[in-house]
Amino acid sequence: MGKYKIADMNIIMENSGDKTERRAEKYLYDYEGKPNFKLRIEEDQFQDLYERNLAKYKYPREIYTMQDFIYSFYGAGFSHNILEHNGCVLHSSAVAVDGNAYLFSAHSGTGKSTHTSLWLNYFKDKAVIVNDDKPCIREVNGELYVYGTPWSGKNDISVNDKFKLKAITFICRSDENWIREASKTEAISLFLTQSYKPKDKKHMELLLNMINKIFNKVKIYKMGCNISEDAVKLSYETMSKD
Fold first, then answer.
1. What is the mean pLDDT of residues 68-94?
2. Is residue 79 domain-shared with residue 22, that is, in the same domain?
3. Number of H helices, E strands in the chain
4. Residue 128 structural domain
5. Euclidean distance between CA atoms 11 and 120, whole angstroms
6. Can you give the pTM of this predicted structure?
7. Are strands 9-14 and 37-40 parallel, antiparallel or unpaired?
Protein backbone atom coordinates (compact mmCIF):
# COMPACT_ATOMS: atom_id res chain seq x y z
CA MET A 1 0.00 0.00 0.00
CA GLY A 2 1.38 3.40 -0.98
CA LYS A 3 0.41 6.73 0.58
CA TYR A 4 0.66 9.76 -1.67
CA LYS A 5 -0.12 13.47 -1.77
CA ILE A 6 -1.19 14.43 -5.29
CA ALA A 7 -2.82 17.79 -6.02
CA ASP A 8 -2.97 18.39 -2.24
CA MET A 9 -5.06 15.24 -1.88
CA ASN A 10 -4.08 12.42 0.47
CA ILE A 11 -4.41 9.25 -1.59
CA ILE A 12 -3.82 5.55 -1.18
CA MET A 13 -2.91 3.45 -4.23
CA GLU A 14 -2.89 -0.33 -3.89
CA ASN A 15 -1.87 -2.93 -6.51
CA SER A 16 -0.78 -0.04 -8.73
CA GLY A 17 2.07 -1.83 -10.52
CA ASP A 18 5.76 -1.12 -10.99
CA LYS A 19 5.38 1.67 -13.54
CA THR A 20 2.84 3.59 -11.48
CA GLU A 21 4.88 3.21 -8.30
CA ARG A 22 8.04 4.37 -10.05
CA ARG A 23 6.44 7.47 -11.53
CA ALA A 24 4.57 8.29 -8.32
CA GLU A 25 7.66 7.99 -6.11
CA LYS A 26 8.14 11.76 -5.82
CA TYR A 27 4.55 12.05 -4.55
CA LEU A 28 4.98 9.64 -1.61
CA TYR A 29 3.71 11.19 1.61
CA ASP A 30 3.25 9.41 4.93
CA TYR A 31 0.23 11.33 6.19
CA GLU A 32 -1.86 10.56 9.26
CA GLY A 33 -5.59 9.83 9.20
CA LYS A 34 -7.94 8.78 6.43
CA PRO A 35 -7.15 9.42 2.75
CA ASN A 36 -9.29 11.69 0.62
CA PHE A 37 -9.75 8.71 -1.68
CA LYS A 38 -8.32 5.32 -2.49
CA LEU A 39 -7.36 3.78 -5.84
CA ARG A 40 -7.45 -0.01 -5.81
CA ILE A 41 -8.20 -2.84 -8.23
CA GLU A 42 -8.02 -6.52 -7.31
CA GLU A 43 -4.96 -8.12 -8.91
CA ASP A 44 -7.01 -11.01 -10.30
CA GLN A 45 -9.07 -8.55 -12.36
CA PHE A 46 -6.14 -7.05 -14.25
CA GLN A 47 -5.66 -9.77 -16.86
CA ASP A 48 -9.27 -9.71 -18.02
CA LEU A 49 -9.38 -5.90 -18.06
CA TYR A 50 -6.08 -5.78 -19.94
CA GLU A 51 -7.26 -8.25 -22.61
CA ARG A 52 -10.49 -6.35 -23.13
CA ASN A 53 -8.56 -3.08 -23.45
CA LEU A 54 -6.25 -4.59 -26.06
CA ALA A 55 -9.22 -5.86 -28.05
CA LYS A 56 -11.15 -2.59 -27.81
CA TYR A 57 -8.34 -0.28 -28.91
CA LYS A 58 -6.37 -2.81 -30.98
CA TYR A 59 -3.14 -1.99 -29.16
CA PRO A 60 -0.13 -4.22 -29.98
CA ARG A 61 0.66 -6.31 -26.91
CA GLU A 62 4.43 -5.73 -27.29
CA ILE A 63 3.90 -1.95 -27.29
CA TYR A 64 1.12 -1.64 -24.70
CA THR A 65 2.12 -3.82 -21.77
CA MET A 66 0.19 -4.84 -18.68
CA GLN A 67 2.15 -2.25 -16.68
CA ASP A 68 1.17 0.43 -19.22
CA PHE A 69 -2.46 -0.56 -18.83
CA ILE A 70 -2.38 -0.48 -15.03
CA TYR A 71 -0.67 2.92 -15.09
CA SER A 72 -3.34 4.32 -17.44
CA PHE A 73 -6.14 2.66 -15.47
CA TYR A 74 -5.07 4.27 -12.22
CA GLY A 75 -4.66 7.59 -14.02
CA ALA A 76 -8.29 7.35 -15.10
CA GLY A 77 -9.23 6.50 -11.53
CA PHE A 78 -7.47 9.62 -10.28
CA SER A 79 -9.17 11.75 -12.97
CA HIS A 80 -12.55 10.36 -11.91
CA ASN A 81 -12.11 10.85 -8.17
CA ILE A 82 -10.57 14.33 -8.36
CA LEU A 83 -13.86 15.59 -9.81
CA GLU A 84 -15.34 15.21 -6.32
CA HIS A 85 -12.68 17.56 -4.94
CA ASN A 86 -13.08 20.66 -7.13
CA GLY A 87 -10.61 19.39 -9.70
CA CYS A 88 -10.19 17.93 -13.16
CA VAL A 89 -7.41 16.62 -15.37
CA LEU A 90 -6.73 18.14 -18.81
CA HIS A 91 -4.63 16.34 -21.42
CA SER A 92 -2.03 19.06 -21.89
CA SER A 93 1.53 20.18 -21.28
CA ALA A 94 1.75 22.68 -18.44
CA VAL A 95 4.63 25.12 -18.12
CA ALA A 96 5.10 27.67 -15.32
CA VAL A 97 6.90 31.01 -15.42
CA ASP A 98 7.13 33.37 -12.44
CA GLY A 99 4.64 31.30 -10.44
CA ASN A 100 1.97 31.21 -13.14
CA ALA A 101 1.02 28.11 -15.11
CA TYR A 102 0.16 28.06 -18.80
CA LEU A 103 -1.48 24.98 -20.29
CA PHE A 104 -1.18 23.89 -23.92
CA SER A 105 -3.62 21.20 -24.98
CA ALA A 106 -4.00 19.26 -28.24
CA HIS A 107 -4.32 15.77 -29.63
CA SER A 108 -1.25 13.59 -29.08
CA GLY A 109 1.43 14.24 -31.67
CA THR A 110 0.37 17.81 -32.41
CA GLY A 111 3.38 19.38 -30.72
CA LYS A 112 2.29 20.65 -27.31
CA SER A 113 5.36 19.15 -25.61
CA THR A 114 7.59 20.58 -28.32
CA HIS A 115 6.07 24.01 -27.73
CA THR A 116 6.53 23.95 -23.95
CA SER A 117 10.11 22.72 -24.35
CA LEU A 118 10.74 25.90 -26.36
CA TRP A 119 9.59 27.85 -23.29
CA LEU A 120 12.38 26.19 -21.31
CA ASN A 121 14.89 27.22 -23.96
CA TYR A 122 13.55 30.77 -24.03
CA PHE A 123 13.03 31.43 -20.30
CA LYS A 124 15.85 29.19 -19.03
CA ASP A 125 15.72 28.76 -15.23
CA LYS A 126 12.60 30.92 -14.94
CA ALA A 127 10.45 28.16 -16.47
CA VAL A 128 9.53 24.66 -15.35
CA ILE A 129 7.38 21.94 -16.90
CA VAL A 130 4.72 21.22 -14.28
CA ASN A 131 3.44 18.15 -16.09
CA ASP A 132 3.87 17.07 -19.69
CA ASP A 133 0.66 15.13 -20.22
CA LYS A 134 -2.01 15.17 -17.52
CA PRO A 135 -1.74 18.06 -15.07
CA CYS A 136 -4.50 18.53 -12.55
CA ILE A 137 -6.45 21.78 -12.17
CA ARG A 138 -8.04 22.37 -8.76
CA GLU A 139 -9.92 25.23 -7.18
CA VAL A 140 -8.61 25.86 -3.65
CA ASN A 141 -9.96 28.74 -1.56
CA GLY A 142 -11.34 30.40 -4.66
CA GLU A 143 -8.05 30.21 -6.62
CA LEU A 144 -7.27 27.87 -9.52
CA TYR A 145 -4.02 25.94 -9.28
CA VAL A 146 -2.20 23.57 -11.63
CA TYR A 147 -0.52 20.54 -10.09
CA GLY A 148 1.90 17.97 -11.34
CA THR A 149 0.71 14.35 -11.29
CA PRO A 150 2.43 10.98 -11.81
CA TRP A 151 0.60 10.65 -15.15
CA SER A 152 3.22 12.56 -17.02
CA GLY A 153 3.59 11.38 -20.62
CA LYS A 154 6.12 9.22 -22.36
CA ASN A 155 9.07 11.22 -21.02
CA ASP A 156 7.77 11.28 -17.42
CA ILE A 157 8.20 15.02 -16.91
CA SER A 158 6.46 16.44 -13.84
CA VAL A 159 7.10 18.25 -10.58
CA ASN A 160 5.35 17.73 -7.25
CA ASP A 161 4.35 21.37 -6.96
CA LYS A 162 1.50 23.76 -7.71
CA PHE A 163 1.22 27.04 -9.60
CA LYS A 164 -1.59 29.51 -10.22
CA LEU A 165 -3.43 28.86 -13.46
CA LYS A 166 -3.02 31.84 -15.79
CA ALA A 167 -4.45 30.68 -19.12
CA ILE A 168 -5.15 27.67 -21.35
CA THR A 169 -4.45 27.42 -25.07
CA PHE A 170 -5.54 24.73 -27.52
CA ILE A 171 -2.93 24.49 -30.25
CA CYS A 172 -2.64 23.23 -33.80
CA ARG A 173 0.22 23.14 -36.27
CA SER A 174 0.61 26.11 -38.56
CA ASP A 175 3.29 27.61 -40.77
CA GLU A 176 2.34 31.03 -39.40
CA ASN A 177 1.96 31.87 -35.73
CA TRP A 178 -1.41 33.19 -34.62
CA ILE A 179 -3.49 33.23 -31.46
CA ARG A 180 -7.00 34.35 -30.60
CA GLU A 181 -9.42 34.02 -27.71
CA ALA A 182 -11.74 31.03 -28.12
CA SER A 183 -15.49 31.44 -27.97
CA LYS A 184 -17.16 29.73 -25.02
CA THR A 185 -18.85 27.19 -27.30
CA GLU A 186 -15.66 26.06 -29.02
CA ALA A 187 -13.71 26.21 -25.75
CA ILE A 188 -16.14 23.80 -24.07
CA SER A 189 -15.92 21.43 -27.04
CA LEU A 190 -12.11 21.54 -27.05
CA PHE A 191 -11.89 21.07 -23.29
CA LEU A 192 -14.22 18.07 -23.30
CA THR A 193 -12.29 16.49 -26.17
CA GLN A 194 -9.07 16.59 -24.14
CA SER A 195 -10.55 15.68 -20.74
CA TYR A 196 -11.40 12.47 -18.96
CA LYS A 197 -15.16 12.12 -19.52
CA PRO A 198 -17.02 10.15 -16.85
CA LYS A 199 -19.88 7.91 -17.91
CA ASP A 200 -22.17 8.66 -14.97
CA LYS A 201 -24.34 11.77 -14.71
CA LYS A 202 -23.06 12.87 -11.29
CA HIS A 203 -19.40 13.09 -12.28
CA MET A 204 -20.21 14.56 -15.71
CA GLU A 205 -22.04 17.38 -13.95
CA LEU A 206 -19.03 17.88 -11.67
CA LEU A 207 -16.76 18.12 -14.73
CA LEU A 208 -19.03 20.65 -16.45
CA ASN A 209 -19.22 22.68 -13.24
CA MET A 210 -15.42 22.68 -12.99
CA ILE A 211 -15.06 23.73 -16.63
CA ASN A 212 -17.46 26.60 -16.00
CA LYS A 213 -15.38 27.74 -13.00
CA ILE A 214 -12.23 27.67 -15.13
CA PHE A 215 -13.81 29.64 -17.96
CA ASN A 216 -15.08 32.28 -15.53
CA LYS A 217 -11.61 32.82 -14.04
CA VAL A 218 -9.09 32.47 -16.91
CA LYS A 219 -9.00 33.06 -20.63
CA ILE A 220 -9.06 30.22 -23.14
CA TYR A 221 -7.24 30.59 -26.47
CA LYS A 222 -6.78 28.84 -29.79
CA MET A 223 -3.37 29.03 -31.39
CA GLY A 224 -1.63 27.94 -34.55
CA CYS A 225 2.12 27.72 -34.13
CA ASN A 226 5.35 26.53 -35.65
CA ILE A 227 8.53 25.41 -33.90
CA SER A 228 10.08 28.79 -33.25
CA GLU A 229 10.98 31.28 -30.56
CA ASP A 230 8.45 33.66 -32.10
CA ALA A 231 5.71 31.20 -31.18
CA VAL A 232 6.83 31.33 -27.55
CA LYS A 233 6.91 35.12 -27.53
CA LEU A 234 3.45 35.37 -29.06
CA SER A 235 1.84 32.84 -26.72
CA TYR A 236 3.46 34.24 -23.57
CA GLU A 237 2.79 37.89 -24.37
CA THR A 238 -0.85 37.08 -25.10
CA MET A 239 -1.54 34.61 -22.28
CA SER A 240 0.27 36.59 -19.55
CA LYS A 241 -1.89 39.69 -19.97
CA ASP A 242 -4.13 40.54 -17.00
1. 97
2. yes
3. 7, 12
4. 88-239
5. 31
6. 0.96
7. parallel
